[in-house]
Every structure is written in C-alpha cells, then in structure tokens.
Write a structure and sequence with these properties.
- The chain has one helix and 22 strands.
- It is mainly beta and about 300 residues long.
- It has two domains: about 5-210, 6 Propeller (Neuraminidase), CATH 2.120.10.10; about 225-310, no CATH class.
- The longest helix is centred in the N-terminal third of the chain and has 5 residues, at about 20-25.
Length: about 300
Amino acid sequence: MKRRTFISVLGVAMAALLPSAAAAGQPPQVRITNIRRVFHNGEHNAFTDLVRFRDRFYLTFRSCPDGHMVHPSASIIILASTDAKQWEQVHRFSVDKRDTRDPHFLIVKDTLFVYTGTWYCGQTSPKPQDYDLNQHLGYAAWSKDGAEWHSPILLEGTFGHYIWRANAFDGKAYLCGRRKQAFAVGPRGEGPIVESAMLASDDGLIWRTRALFPAIEVHNTAFQFAPHGKQLGRSGFGIVWHAPQLHALRSFGGAQRCACVHRQVRGVLAQQVQAGLQRAGVHQAHLGVGRIVGQKGAGGTRGERWQLFF
C-alpha cells in the first residue's frame, strides 16, 4: 500500500531564552502552538527544508506518486510564502531516470540554491538490493529572485556522492556528500564502509573534495561554521565539532563514547561524541543565545519521534 502524505508546518513557541538560563545550563521551555497543512497532492511528500530569502519563506520537499522508496517518478517541489501561512508553488523539477531525494537549501552569493541527491533508476523502480551509491549524482535548481528558476543543473564533482546539507563560509559553498570508501564496487546500498566528505565550490555548481568528516558510519551530516571559521557538525550518528583545540563535549542524548579523529579541516582537529540512538533528518540553527538542533530519533519504546535540543 502506498502511503499518501502531506506537508505540515509546526508553530513552535520558545520561552526562557535568556542568558541567565543558558548560563545555568537550563534548556528553554518549548511548546507546539499549532500544526497546519500547507500542501497536499495525493502523493508521498517528505524530506522538507525551509529557508528565508529576500523577505520570503521557501519550503522544498520531494514528491512522488509511487511512495517513499526509490522511483524515477519523483520530483522536487518549491513553495514560497510571505507569512508562512499562505503558500504558492514557484517551481518543480525532476531528473530523467533518477529519483530526486532530500532537497536542501543554500544561500550563497545572493543566490538561492536547492540541492538534491539522486539515485539512478533507469526506466523502472530498482529493487533495494540493486541500489548503487556509486551511481549517485547531485543536481541543483537556483534562482536570483525566488521567481525565475534554473534546473535541473548537474553538479560537477558529485558523481558517486549522496549529497546532503550545505553551508557557506567566506563566500564559498560547502556541501556534505557521503560515499563508499574508495568507491568500492561490490557492496550495494549503504553501510559501514560509507564515509562523509566535505565538498567545496566557488560557484555552487562545480565541486571538489575539501576534507572528510570522521569516517565512522557518518550519515545525514549537518554542519555550521562559527564566526571564526570553527565548524560545528551534527551527523546522523553523532556530534562532530571541528575547533582549534579539542573540547569536552556533551552529547545531546547523553555522552557515551568519545573518539578523537585526527583529520585536518582548515587546520583544526575533530572530535566525535557518539550518540546512543540512530538519528536522521538533522537540522541546526542559531536561536537566541544558543543553538537549537532538531532531528528524528528512532529507537526506544516510543518509536520514531521528532526531537529538539538546545
């Protein structure tokens, strides 16, 4: 049975975001004030990202009539709104013989990009045992004003990479792309041999490998740059913080195991704190005097759930 889904927006109210509370180590109080549907077309709609660009909100997601799994019928939809209540579709694109998945926004050089990693399918939907990460390829849509869009644009340098979240620093674009170590040919799908690479670009379209995230089953990596070029990352399986010196970090889910990973990223060291549960759909943002991280957590007795950490 195909599961039909719709896209919703959560209204989240944050209280007690005060320096004194943050200094005391107390998390802010959070409550969900409303949930409203903004899009429904009878298809499977999922994997959202949200950004504000030129005084408008933009929401992107994958839409597919055949469901969650890998299908060449998938496409990426982009909606726009001035108040986050009323939304209109401003663009939709697909890639021939490929499944467009997990779109993510990036604003760099006054341009709004949407990046998507695509599985190769051919004419029909492949079986899971036939998924080949080595055939993954990144594509983009971009716009200067949010109204006129250019797509799909093949991203040079991303073949064999499942591209994920992006960020910008000092006028350059950076992108996470997970890949098989040494682009191993035998194994299909994804697994423990997968590593996450940091890709860099001057124009947001042509990419090269800049560094590696800690190579311990890192998936779905989200990362941000602090004001001095430090980098704070959150992967699907742990926390990654690149800083001038090693810090003692506390996992949002409780510190369990620390491992120093001696890889140079802009001349800084990396440290990883493993988390106890599998993580997916990780999002990061600055809020008030601290940082908020949202993610879908799988595990425990309550099943999947959306979690916020401060």
